[in-house]
Write a structure and sequence with these properties.
By secondary structure, this protein is an alpha+beta fold. 52% of the residues lie in helices and 15% in strands. The protein has 6 helices and 3 strands. It has helices at residues 14-32, 39-43, 73-82, 84-94, 110-122, 124-140; strands spanning 46-53, 59-66, 102-107. The chain has a 3-stranded mixed β-sheet with strand order 1-2-3. The longest helix is centred in the first third of the chain and has 19 residues, at 14-32.
Length: 143
């Protein structure tokens, strides 16, 4: 009986990570060079934070964010979705996969989570709790 590796509960495979990074770079380059035939999309400055792939590499989810809030996130995602066939074609030219993944675009919430983490670390209660182990370690060494 053949051993089948299940990815339930596991992180992405090396191949998923490698292909995701190639797609992220390609999307970033295409958007940066304004190679798409849509003036609205070319006028936007969009960053591609991450691309995650399904287990079978047929669906790629790109997490995107307009730079410095130049346009609403929903508008940027709508413009990318409108131009999905052309973006997918450009990716297909670069990748050497049997199938070019279907693209999906989502808002990148990484920056929001970073802001929330900074806000939590600035909380006086958290600052006190972070400083407490250092103070206990200093008093414990004097015995």
């Amino acid at each position: 009986m053949a051993y089948k590796q299940s990815s339930v509960g596991h992180g992405p495979s090396q191949r998923q990570l490698r292909v995701g990074e190639l797609i992220r770079r390609t999307l970033s380059d295409v958007l940066n060079r304004a190679e798409i035939h849509d003036t609205d999309l070319n006028a936007m400055s969009i960053t591609v934070g991450e691309v995650s792939l399904s287990n079978d590499l047929k669906v790629a989810t790109a997490y995107v964010m307009p730079l410095m809030g130049s346009v609403p996130v929903a508008d940027a995602i709508a413009a990318l979705a409108r131009n999905k066939p052309e973006l997918r074609h450009r990716i297909g030219q670069v990748l050497t996969l049997k199938y070019t993944p279907d693209l999906r675009f989502r808002a990148d919430e990484t920056f929001d989570r970073l802001d929330e983490t900074r806000r939590l670390f600035d909380n006086p209660t958290v600052q006190r709790d972070l400083a407490a182990p250092d103070a206990e370690a200093d008093t414990g060494d004097g015995d």
